[in-house]
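Protocol step 4 of 6: record predicted structures for both targets in the notebook before any analysis. Target 1:
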Amino acid sequence: MEEQKKKVLVLTGGGDCPGLNAVIRGIAKRARKEKTWEAYGSIEAFNGVLNEPQQIIKLTQRKTAGIHVKGGTILKTTNKANPLKFPEIQKDGSVKEIDRSNELVTKIKKLGFDAVINIGGDGSQKISKVLFDQGLNIIGVPKTIDNDLSATDMTFGFQTAVQIATDSFDKLVTTAESHHRVMIMEVMGRDAGWIAIHTAIAGGAEICIIPEIPYDIEKLVKRIDARYKLGKGFVNIVIAEGAKAKDGTIVSRSGEKGSEHVRLGGVAFQLSQQLKDAGCKAEIRETVLGHIQRGGTPTAFDRVLATLFGVKAMELVIHGEFGKMVALKNNNISYVSLEEATRESNFVNKDSFLVKAAKGLGISFGD
């Protein structure tokens, strides 16, 4: 009689990210190699478990073959399914948050799953920590293009986002030079400036504005003016979506119903107007990359990192090492506790060599 196989449930939560499919494939392939494990996927994060009817699929070889080269996630994703603050729309259209975590843990166990692998960013891993404390066998995999998780040296998706941003920046440089313009390119990152500063260095920006270093608009105008002689010249600026002026505020809009996050975006246009109001005479154009940075084929680096994370996550499941998040530490694939994983965010240190090197190249941060 064939021994009943153990089951692991895989899910992707939060924003999509290049490399998610490579993680899913890595988990599924490692599970199949073990012979005693089977991998399943929950559609749209924990919604696949909580919804009626439930949406759970088996991660067969056919379903996962070749998906590592594709952007997005075959399991779909959502940022509106936090089981600790699950959004329930009332009859009057208002949203009430309810805690469905106990219900979720009970359902997962009743479905016969021996473990869960939660692929997501800071918010997802905080959920993992609570569910682990409630008795769920869970492993976290760090995912974010923002690179803002301090417990891992790098997250997959970040390198792809930087490559996309750099490719876009390179195209804007030629337009700026041809028209003697100031080109402002806005990139993602929320409260962290990693994408912006890496793109600025890679692309050769004159100005880089990040959330960690509030800018002085007068200093930016002086820097721009210094680039123009007799009306000729050009300037390329990279700005992170969470950046703000000294004594200023970030540009945000209300989040969608059920989402815990405010929507950032539009700071490029704010900066443009501030420069004009401060007397900048050059023509200014703005470009907001937005979700372009989240999509498309992951770079080779992100495919490798994501695959290694997937394999390591499955091996932690096999060995019963729950309550952990896989991590890249000193060029090794390791793991940390979920508590350590969610203790603090990873921001650009203004005194780091990265910032000092950028300034050494002549890049202004407006400080």
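Target 2:
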Amino acid sequence: MEYRRLGASGLRVSAVSLGTWLTAGHTIDVAATTKLVRTALDLGINLLDTADVYAKGAAEEALGQAIAGVPRHTLVVATKCFFPMSDDPNDKGLSRKHVVESLHKSLRRLRLDYVDLFQCHRPDPETPLEETCRAMDDLVRQGKTLYWGVSQWPADSITRAVQLCCDNGQAPPISNQPCYNLLDRGIEAAVLPASREAGVGQIVFSPLAQGVLTGKYKKGARPKGSRASDERANRFIGRYLDDATAVARVERFVELAAATGRAPHELALAFCLRRPEVASVIVGATSPEQLRANAAAAAVKLDDATITALDAIFPAP
């Protein structure tokens, strides 16, 4: 497994990380989650990503049970807050109250004294950025989280948050967690350049476009038993499968993968990891075999000809 520095920090994370969105506490039980986590650790994966909102806390609880007894220094545990966890008006967003209370609840569910990375799941236009930065800095100073980051933030917000923290002597965010894959290359235009300048690394989610880039959804079909056929898990995959242009591009991509002697998932993950700004790609596996296959992609390096061919199929923004 390759390890990369996360932004300008000294934290090193595995190039492939294990996520819990739509899996832990949702489609797989605690026993299966534990088996996946132990497989991940055996493969050298140290970054485990979750969020309070995933299965309304059940994902954090499952992960907490899965890592019980694992030497703490071997783990990089990341969680997030922002989305509503109840109907209470203060149980959402990035206010000081919600940020602090959310982390305390997450720590209880994860059975940890601290997390390695606490992330703002989305930007909050209703809370002053100064308030969020101050709350995060306080949590870092208290040792409740070692670092903090953001997720799906636009370039200008990332730049402003880092500048505010530097101006006020606060711990700046070290990471951003955006959606990034061959079908979603939007961050290349502004987010990646701004993050590079600010010392913010990328932990990208959905690098396989919810599994679409594996080639298993031929012509946009939704096979029985797949994520696309699961009404609880397919809210996001439809935007790919219902797009005729995207489906056609994936078919060309699968042909290219075959011509290069690589599996589609290897090319898709290696494409994301080709960027030095990307510290890790989050994969959401449901079986150890699937996780092993994805982890192997960390060793794949794309040559210039393959990158050119991929750019031709999936044009940059």
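Step 5 preliminary note on target 2. The first helix runs from residue 30 to 42. The radius of gyration is 19 Å.
Proceed to step 6 after PI sign-off.
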